[in-house]
Amino acid sequence: MVNKTVASAADAVADIYDGATILIGGFGEAGSPIELIHALIDQGAKDLTVVSNNTGSGQVGLAALIANRQVRKMICSFPKSANSVVFPELYTRGEIELELVPQGTLAERIRCGGAGIPAFYTPTSVNTPLAEGKEIRHFNGNPYVMEYAIRGDFALVKSLKADRYGNLVYHKTARNFNPVMCTAATTTIVQAKHLVEVGSLDPETVITPGIFVQRVLEVTHPMEESVLVAENRRYPWNR
Amino acid sequence: MAEVAQKVAADIPDASYVNLGIGIPEMVAGFVPEGRELIYHTENGLLGMGPTPVPGHEDPELINAGKKCVTAIPGASFFHHADSFMMIRGGHIDYCVLGAFQVSQEGDLANWSTGETNAIPAVGGAMDLVAGVKNIFVITQHTTKTGEPKIVQQCTYPLTGKQVVTRIYTNYAIIDIRDKKLYIRELAPGIEMEFLQQVTGAPLHQD
Asked: How far is the alpha carbon of A215 from chain B, nearest alpha carbon, in Å?
């Protein structure tokens, strides 16, 4: 029997180890798996490399993971947003590494990681500082930059619905990086708002086929990052 | 800058697919000229982005590239990031409207880093957009807050792309970039040519 469901957020992230590379879905708060991130804070794995478009906001979710000094390096396209304080402070003090990647290159590096393609050439970032030190090759007379694929040891993903096979459906622009990240990690861990019966998702509308997913946790009432930030909440709650 | 954003929308042909960047470009979504269908793309996975929702109808999972709540028009579609940037890099988007720190007379754009040691660089999708979209419009204040020209001979900030901008919309003028030169297309009401040249860091030309 195929059953990828897990009983708790703690179970879902229990084997994440020090030094792991973790892909974390989301664009700002949309699609960010905040309950799984908080479970990872409780779990305590350190020295992590995190791949995520942003660096979180306030003192919850990804920002709290960074504040808890579990992240050695961020790979992202846009590390500052309104209300992002934790990463900028640590970065300015030289206490966290940053690999800045153009957003489309980030998406494609992850896609290639999932597709078994080790590297690719892109026109993005040609003639800019982000191409410095990288191989340039010309095709049809135009320059392209070589970029390497990204794979994760783990991916933390948020979806709207999931079944026990790991088939996923997302919600509006909360889809963003989540589907490509599912494909590019050794262990993909999903928090879904609704765990549904096998057969109830229309196969024509499944966005992530279950083959890309290893664990599914139902989180019926996910917290909203912006609400927590507005209330000045901080994770762990008792700090 | 709302009037300027309206000018940008007015210059985009019917049935175009248009990407809007963060900041002032977001305002363009509020203006679809009468009788035209413009399909707005936002890089975080929505084609058919509509205006700001009415208060009380915001959905934090329906946002634009600037992470502000938006709406989806009838006929909209959602997709993941790799598909979104396939649209961008693959040349499927007709127009892109971006903000700028600096634009050079040759069309070089700088809009992601001031290059200062303590600054946090943030590139987002800008480099992919200038690499993949043919018509790159910039909408910006004509000068910095301290009155320095943002339109310059050569960018001093790190580049987003080289020779990519085709037109600049500011609070003072609309300027075309052709053959590595700046051509005035339209002056804002009350703006004189002499003044415009004073606040522009590169020679202006007229057809």
From this structure: 21
